[in-house]
Amino acid sequence: MDNQSRKGYWRENFKYLSILLFIWFTVSFGFGILLVDELNRIQFWGFKLGFWFAQQGSIFVFIILIFVYVHLMNRLDKKYKLDS
Amino acid sequence: MDIKTWTFILVGLSFALYIGIAIWSRAKSTKDFYVAGGGVSPLANGLATAADWMSAASFLGMAGIIAFSGYDGSVYLMGWTGGYVLLALLLAPYLRKFGKFTVPDFIGDRYYSNLARTVAVIAALFVSFTYVAGQMRGVGVVFSRFLDVEVNTGVYIGMAVVLFYAFLGGMKGITYTQVAQYCVLIFAFMVPAIFISLMMTGNPIPQLGFGSTGHDGVYLLDKLDGLMTELGFTAYTDGTKSTTDVFFITAALMAGTAGLPHVIIRFFTVPKVKDARKSAGFALLFIAILYTTAPAIAVFARTNLMDTVQDVPYGEIPGWFTKWEDTDLISWTDKNGDGKVQMLPGSAIVGKQPEFVEGRGELGQRMISNASDSENELYVDLDIMVLANPEIANLPNWVVALVAAGGLAAALSTAAGLLLVISTSISHDLIKKQLAPAISDKKELWIARFSALLAVLVAGYFGIHPPGFVASVVALAFGLAAASFFPAILMGIFSKRMNREGAIAGMVAGLGITCYYIARFKLGWIGSPETSTAAHWWWGISPEGFGTLGMLLNFLVAIVVSRITPSPPKEVQDIVEDIRIPSGAGEAIDH
After folding, report:
1. What is the pTM of this model?
2. In chain B, residues 164-203 whose CB comes closer than 8 Å to chain A
3. How many CB atoms neighbour CB B169 within 10 A?
4. Domain spans, chain A
5. Across the interface, do B74 and A54 touch by the CB < 8 Å criterion?
6. Summary mean pLDDT of chain B
7. All residues at 6 or more sequence positions from B350 whose CB lies less than 8 Å from its CB, including other chains
8. Are A34 and B77 in contact (CB < 8 Å)?
9. Measured between alpha carbons, how far is B175 from B164 in angstroms, rounded to an integer?
10. Is A56 close to B251, i.e. CB distance below 8 A?
11. In principle, which of B106, B261, B429, B579 could form an S-S bond with B124, CB 3.0–4.6 Å?
């Protein structure tokens, strides 16, 4: 693998990481902790929304994030022919 | 059949299954012993990681802690799951590509230094021993309650079973046993949860149930908030910890999760880099089934507890209450002399555990010598909430017994994973890599087995002399892992400039300050008791959350030191280039 595509691969990987980790931070530290009091004013079915993010929602998002990452990286590996 | 017979049957059957699997999957080489031969499928590895991960603290302690802390309990839920995102995105694939056996292996090679390796070994042993202490105590609690044996006898039985399959099977035996243990523990956790959810809300899915209405048409959480504020507690959905502290504890648990050696080591067992990513996803999925159910159980348990004992005369109290009272885990002192149970804010006792004295009160209750001045009359050990829940909700005996088998599965699977890390650290990282590099594979395998024996004995000692609550002990292990491993591994992958000097200085600084803080404010070993209270915490951060600061200090020291010392050699920079590319990861390499 030449230097050029090595760099390209790493840059794209890094871009995915940044976006996914931003979402990771937002749903847990953002919605579940820093903004919890504001979100708690919103009723979400039988839950206060902030409380729901802290005890349920963030966890569901975490699972989705990992599987999205798996999917993106498999595609990226294929693009750079690294899926051997 | 009574509970005891059911428990004997279910626990006996599950133990026979674990031992059978261990015999079937004996380790024949060190590679089998350390990384299960490197051929575990991502799904099986996900299941095993989940069992490895979910400890006595998750199974027995967590729902209880959440039941009594409400929103504050979210730190465990987010912390112990969010860490898997870090693991899957930032660590696992690269460490798998690197392809050695242990975390100290990576640290030692990446930082071209036996000193770095030694620091990592010490940190791994420290973290694992802190963590394993809680597991053995969990085993003891389950045995003493359900099989009427002494707590210590329970610990001995647990030691014997773990030793058997860790000794024989190593990672291979442990992996397949853990797959079985996951099935046992998740079934045991979900069955009562579904029953209780159905009973209380008519919805069989606990995750939806605790956001539903009860039979009176009021949302369960609103009702609980109301009950609690009426009695002077903080509302269940509000919590009492400061936002700063919640933030720091969550961050410490996340980074700690990603840095725990017994979790990382699991990703060395899958065949390819892309399997490592997928396997982390499966692991989190299986973990999340329990972790999203636990807060539901917490709400059911807290509501049930208030409904069944609040203002109930002691003479009419349900049977489970007095049974747990007899095992020292519940105490009631009739402070206002009305003969009824009152559960109010404040601790009912002085100190951590009730001290029972001989003789009974006029109503037949057990007497304690350390009742506090607060109006609260009831002490409930947090660990029993999950164990007692099926009884509180009047579920059939076999369900109660099932929970015992599940609690044991959770404690044993985690203990086994930790014991493996401990024995590998000694036999591989210390003896093979440093003291006696010339020993044969066969000899190393035997040394690994004897290290496992040694580790079981030490773990058993901790089980018999337990250091405090199960979950809070475990929480400390995370702070230490967050402050040492997580930064060192992360920078090892993402910074080519990070060198030996920086990494060692960072780990020593992070570990040092975290240990100091815990010794100072948690254990009270340093400083006078008056200045060790919460009011003196630095920036209001509790010892549980301090790992985050330790981690930041580690990053800072490592970056500064690495900039004023020479760059790492060319070969090492090539290693970093190489682990970033997923293809060409061989099987876990023989050495």
Report:
1. 0.90
2. none
3. 25
4. 3-79
5. yes
6. 85
7. B370, B371, B372
8. no
9. 14
10. no
11. B261
